[in-house]
Design goal:
Elements (H helix, E strand, L loop, with lengths): L1 H10 L1 H18 L25 E8 L5 H16 L5 E9 L2 E8 L5 H13 L13 E2 L8 E10 L11 H17 L4 E8 L3 E7 L1 H7 L3 H11 L3 E8 L2 E7 L6 H5 L2 E5 L2 E4 H4 E7 L6 E3 L2 E10 L5 H15 L5 E3 L5 E11 L1 H30 L2 H25 L5 H31 L8 H28 L1 H4 L3 H37 L5 H12 L1
Antiparallel strand pairs: 1-3, 1-4, 2-3, 5-14, 5-16, 6-14, 7-12, 8-9, 10-11, 13-14, 15-16
Helix pairs in contact: 1-14, 1-16, 2-12, 2-16, 11-12, 11-13, 12-13, 12-16, 13-14, 13-16, 14-16
């Protein structure tokens, strides 16, 4: 079968060159280096700086405001942990209970699908028996991202027309802009799982009760709370028909201003309504917080963009930047006391793009230098320009074919994975040298060196089939030697398996090129006859 394959592609050079052209175009499309492809589509290998060696983990997050860590642990963390233990594939569960918050970390076996585990958790949470958790306590599942998902951090700052910082923006104003404008816009970017807000103050209505006034009017806190709840509702009623027209009756009661709350009735004493403003003061104020964001020693407001699991981090960052450019003209501005205009601007202070591009640039340079050095060494040692062309074509095409296989098998490009290609360069050169040198040897043994037609085709075919089995055995032995790496598990497997995959892909690509491309190219190149006298005359002229 191997000999028949070699013979088919050797005799049908048009098919071979079309296949070669397809490999080159597809490889450029799949390359992670951000090459300009012109009219060709882009489907690059997902790129990140470092491999994600985290565990297959999901987080269940539950809030119960105002409760002590002991209450949280007894009534939320422990019941949820014992209930979630029954999920199939769970390896271990860790919980953390702090003031008002319970965090449960569910770690699954590595072989399970990420989104399958999320589905199982949601099914379990929806089927909890009544009474498992306190009333009005609803657990939520964390974002579909990993620990390396934080790819872009930014702050919202007031800037003048020259881009210099300008003040007069309250942390509450910036937080409101972040929560109700920027956050929603960036969440809509492709590949974004979540945009988390940090810093500033969340604006809220605050009711400061007056105990003396409450005692004088005979009302208690429960009545005030009940009045606030009832005052912030829209109530639906029935429909009535009047003059053959049907009218929908409803009551509009959502709070929109401070006066809406102030006028809410708490109780009625002797036909006199007691309103909230009679027993309390209603104001706008910041919500209680237990942390903040500091930038250069000053209060700051910002957000964290989290990339979705399985997405391309570099592509996600580019999508976020494009969305920022889109929404920036619509960000609010104000006129300061000195007459200058201060406009809210998104300022990045962590952008993984730089780290990713530096990593890719280092490896791209390393691969380029390796290929260049290999070409020079081949030319010097073989002293045969045609043979050097045959061998050197294998290297870049083999790398491009490796990108194709990486994209199809879901192997991300990072510093470890791309190192596997760099390691395999030597083996790829060896494959080209073995095939090409044997072809040259057989041509020299033939009576008519460089003869065209059927004779040369038979010579190339015999030379290729003579060493094909040995090359296949050698590469198979190398691949088998990597089986212990493929068998690694947990963090070690996630770290080194991509390297083993890319090295194997590169060697298999070199084998395919050696069996299919090199024989056809050799037959084409060695069929070309040069007039040695004319070549010598041109060469001497150039030297003069």
């Amino acid at each position: 079968m191997l000999n028949k394959t070699i013979k088919f592609f050797l005799e049908n050079r048009l098919v071979t060159f079309l296949l070669l052209f397809t490999f080159i175009l597809w490889g450029v499309i799949s390359s992670p280096f951000g090459w300009e492809t012109g009219i060709l589509p882009r489907d690059p290998v997902p790129v990140d700086a470092i491999p994600d060696i985290g565990e297959n983990q999901q987080i269940v997050y539950t809030q119960w405001p105002g409760r002590s860590p002991q209450d949280i642990d007894d009534q939320i963390s422990y019941p949820l942990t014992t209930s979630l233990l029954g999920i199939p594939g769970v390896k271990t569960i860790r919980s953390n209970s702090i003031f008002g918050v319970s965090s449960i970390y569910i770690i699954f076996e590595d072989g399970l699908d990420f989104y399958w585990t999320r589905t199982r958790i949601l099914e379990k949470l929806n089927s909890l028996p009544p009474g498992t958790l306190p009333p009005d306590v609803i657990p939520s599942l964390g974002p579909d991202a990993t620990a390396l998902g934080q790819v872009y951090w930014y702050t919202l700052e007031g800037r003048n027309k020259d881009g210099e910082p300008s003040g007069d923006w309250d942390p509450q104003e910036l937080r409101s802009i972040q929560d109700f404008y920027v956050k929603y816009a960036l969440t809509a970017a492709k590949g974004v799982s979540e945009v988390a807000s940090i810093g500033g103050f969340v604006k809220e209505y605050q009711i400061d009760i007056d105990p003396i006034a409450m005692k004088a009017h005979g009302v208690n806190i429960a009545q005030i709370m009940n009045a606030v709840k009832k005052s912030n509702l829209d109530i639906g009623a029935r429909t009535i028909e009047f003059n053959r027209v049907e009218y929908l009756i409803r009551a509009l009661g959502y709070v929109k201003t401070l006066s809406d709350l102030e006028e809410s009735v708490v109780a009625v004493n002797e036909n006199v309504p007691i309103r909230i403003k009679d027993v309390a003061k209603v104001n706008f104020g910041p919500a209680t917080r237990r942390g903040g964001l500091d930038k250069g020693g000053a209060e700051a407001v910002g957000g964290v963009v989290v990339a979705r699991y399985g997405s391309n981090p570099l592509e996600v960052i580019e999508n976020v930047k494009a969305k920022i450019e889109e929404i920036s003209p619509g960000l609010p501005s104000k006129i300061l006391a000195d007459g200058s205009v201060s406009k809210v601007t998104l300022i990045p202070f962590y952008d993984r793009t730089g780290l990713i591009k530096e990593t890719l640039g280092t490896l791209e340079e390393a691969l380029s230098l390796e290929i260049l050095i290999s070409i020079i060494v081949i030319i010097v040692l073989m002293l045969n320009l045609r043979a050097s062309i045959l061998i050197t074509t294998l290297l870049p095409i083999g790398v491009l074919m490796t990108f194709i296989v990486m994209r199809r098998f879901g192997v991300d490009a990072n510093i470890v994975a791309l190192s596997g290609i760099a390691i395999a360069i030597g083996v790829m050169v060896d494959v080209g040298v073995v095939f090409t040198e044997n072809i040259i040897r057989h041509i020299e043994m033939a009576k008519n060196v460089g003869a065209k037609g059927k004779h040369l085709l038979n010579v190339v075919y015999e030379a290729t089939t003579e060493v094909a089995g040995a090359v296949l055995t050698a590469l198979t032995t190398t691949v088998v030697s990597f089986l212990p790496v493929f068998a690694m598990e947990a963090a070690e497997g996630k770290l080194f398996r991509p390297l083993a995959f890319t090295k194997t892909f590169a060697m298999l690509s070199a084998l395919i090129i050696g069996l299919i491309i090199i024989p056809a190219l050799a037959h084409f190149i060695f069929s070309i006859k040069f007039d040695k006298k004319k070549v010598s005359w041109i060469w001497n002229g150039l030297l003069i």
